């Protein structure tokens, strides 16, 4: 038998190479997924726990009495630890949702959800003298997963964060074929050229009054997209921003 007959044809060799490359790719993908989950676990436990413990120890120290000349330093430490916890929590959430393509939905009253989130975050606004008002329409039901709470929390948290002291924050929910959520603040606003980029991961503006890693709005955009909705930002009449998210109404 000739040596040519013993050799696989070019098409067979190509198929063998393709199968080998596919197996190598699947192995890399499996390893990447394992690393992805490992990193989520590290964020959830190994990094968040010590920061949370440090924040609580610092609170105990401050409750026991801190000299007035030292209090600004303790307040600064608590603020930094709280910011670190927020960043870690956002990173964990983002990693968990970025690969989701489907979810199990149930009918959720968006207005009721907004009232719950406003109640939980109102103390943060009161620390800055901010007044949070909510206008809720009845029947604003959407088919959603519990992740939708993160949209409301992120948008209201941003309004509190960037809104000036003693300002008003207005949150509204309207019903219809498209259920609309609006969160308006009197902060520095978002320049027109940044109104799309601000929803990208790490897309917050690094110059001017608005800075940050940008994960919060990236989470908002991803969750809204998963629910078949849209989210954008507009200029608030008289100054500030209005963040708007729309969702298909539930059945």
3D structure, described in words:
Helix content is 52%, strand content 17%. With 251 residues, it is an alpha+beta fold. It folds into 2 domains: 10-97; 106-248, 2-Layer Sandwich (Heat Shock Protein 90), CATH 3.30.565. The strands form 2 sheets. It has a 5-stranded mixed sheet. A two-stranded antiparallel ribbon has the order 1-3. Helix 2 (10-63) packs antiparallel against helix 3, helix 3 (71-97) packs parallel to helix 6 and helix 5 (148-162) packs antiparallel against helix 6. It starts with a helix and ends with a strand.
Topology (SSEs and partners):
Layout (H helix, E strand, L loop, with lengths): L2 H4 L3 H54 L7 H27 L8 E4 H18 L3 E6 L4 E4 L3 H15 L5 E7 L3 E8 L29 H12 L3 E6 L5 E8 L3
Helix pairs in contact: 2-3, 3-6, 4-5, 5-6
CATH superfamily placement of the largest domain: Histidine kinase-like ATPase, C-terminal domain
Second CATH tier, the architecture of the largest domain: 2-Layer Sandwich
Give the terminus-to-terminus CA distance: 72 Å
For the biggest β-sheet, the strand order reads: 2-4-5-7-6
